[in-house]
Structure formats: C-alpha cells, structure tokens
Design a protein that fits this description.
Elements lengths: L15 H14 L12 E3 H16 L7 H12 L6 H5 L2 E3 H5 L10 H21 L9 H8 L6 E6 L7 E8 L5 E5 L5 H6 L2 H7 L5 E2 L3 E2 H5 L5 H5 L1
GO molecular function: DNA binding; DNA-binding transcription factor activity
Pfam families: SH2, STAT_linker
Keywords: Activator, Cytoplasm, DNA-binding, Nucleus, Phosphoprotein, SH2 domain, Transcription, Transcription regulation
Length: 233
C-alpha cells in the first residue's frame, strides 16, 4: 500500500475554497512518515510564508514572488496584530483556525478565502501587471495613506482590496491648493470588471492619476498594457 496525495470530496462548488485550503495545508505541512490524516494544527509562520509564496507563483505562473513587505502585511492580517515587528512575526506559529476557520475582524471571510480571491484575480486579470511589479498589492490602507500623503497630486498605487474578495483598488493622492493632502481609494475592480475593460485602460481613463508611486509617469509604467485598438475606436 502507498499513501496518495490528499483528496477532498465535495458535493457543491461553494465547498471548493475549503477543499483547496485543506489540500494546501496537508501538502505543505504533513510529515512523510506521519500517521494517515494527521497534520500539525500549528506551523511556523516562516513556513507558511514559503507555502503562500510557492502557491502564488505556481497559480499565477510568474517568476516574481512575494517580498518581505508583503509577508509583513500578511502577518498583520492573519494575526490581527499591527504593533509587532517583522522579526516578531518570524518567531510565531500560525494555526489552521487562523488560516481558514476564523473570520477576519470586521469581514465575512477567512484569511485563506481572501488570499485565494487575490490568487484568482491575479491569475485571471493581473498576471502581466504583477510580473512587471506595477502592483504593490499586499499593503494596508493605513500604510498607503502614510506613503502617499507626502507625494505630489495624482500619485497612485495599486493594492488588493481588504473589504472584498478578489478585488484590486487604486489609491491616489489629491492635494489641495492650500497644500493639504487627501488619499482616496477607488471602488475595487473585480475580475468581471477587468474582463470588460482592462486595468491598464481604466488607469488611462482616470485623468486624476498621474504618477505610479513613487514617481513613474503612468503612461511610461502602463503604456505597454494599454489597448490601442480600443483607443482608436
């Protein structure tokens, strides 16, 4: 006899997300010589980072993986802790419940449901943008405000929505004549939205967007992603 790779039988499509979480956790964290079906309930956060990175690169089919600052944001989200340092998180362990049982504070979904939504959106609509490093993606709204508040009018960046599963939003700074600044977040775009009109063309449409953070003119950053045929109609 031989142990197979993990299999989960589902009876409805709405169980697909949980099934994928179970398979991912089993594949990543089970021991070779384990008792069948026994998997650790908690794993080192560092190991989880490696798993999320491998999963992201494989699903999106990109060579551009997650960066240190991405892991920091993901740790803040899964542990619901905004006061710890990057090094603090490295010594922690994360549980199955934190990964895919507990609902994120103020949301209606788990960490894995949110991350899987990001995977699906990036795979379907944002692969080239991600691979060109045009999307920061994994960054909090609060940190975006800190980054953009001192930037010139029209500076923007792209982040994955915290409030919706599978959404990407554009944060941009509006600077008043008195020098005051305000950071606004545009309503998130879903895969359905981006299948109707691409992210590049939407960015071209929005006149208030001028420079991709920190200081790249938007046409220079996104020009290769514009749909020329659309513009000629």
């Amino acid at each position: 006899q031989v142990l197979s790779l993990p299999i989960v039988v589902i009876v409805h499509g709405n169980q697909d997300n949980n099934a994928k979480a179970t398979v991912l956790w089993d594949n990543a964290f089970s021991e070779i010589d384990r008792v069948p079906f026994v998997v650790a309930e908690r794993v080192p956060w560092e190991k989880m980072c490696d798993t999320l990175n491998l999963k992201f690169m494989a699903e999106v089919q990109t060579t551009k993986g997650l960066l240190k600052e991405h892991y920091f944001f993901l740790a803040q989200k899964i542990f619901n802790d905004h006061s710890a340092s990057f090094e603090d998180f490295q010594s922690r362990s994360v549980s199955w419940a934190q990964f895919n049982k507990e609902i994120l504070p103020g949301r209606g979904f788990t960490f894995w449901q949110w991350f899987d939504g990001v995977l699906d959106l990036t795979k379907r609509c944002l692969k080239s943008y991600w691979s060109d490093r045009l999307i920061i993606g994994f960054i909090s709204k609060q940190y975006v405000c800190k980054l953009l508040s001192t930037e010139p009018d029209g500076t923007f960046l792209l982040r994955f929505s915290d409030s919706e599963i599978g959404g990407v939003t554009i944060a941009h700074v509006i600077r008043g004549k008195d020098g005051s600044s305000q950071v606004e977040n545009i309503q998130p775009f879903s895969a359905k939205d981006l299948s109707i009109r691409s992210l590049g063309d939407r960015i071209r449409d929005l006149g208030q967007l001028r420079n991709l953070y920190p200081n790249t003119p938007k046409d220079q950053a996104f020009g290769s992603h514009y749909n020329s045929e659309w513009g000629e109609q």
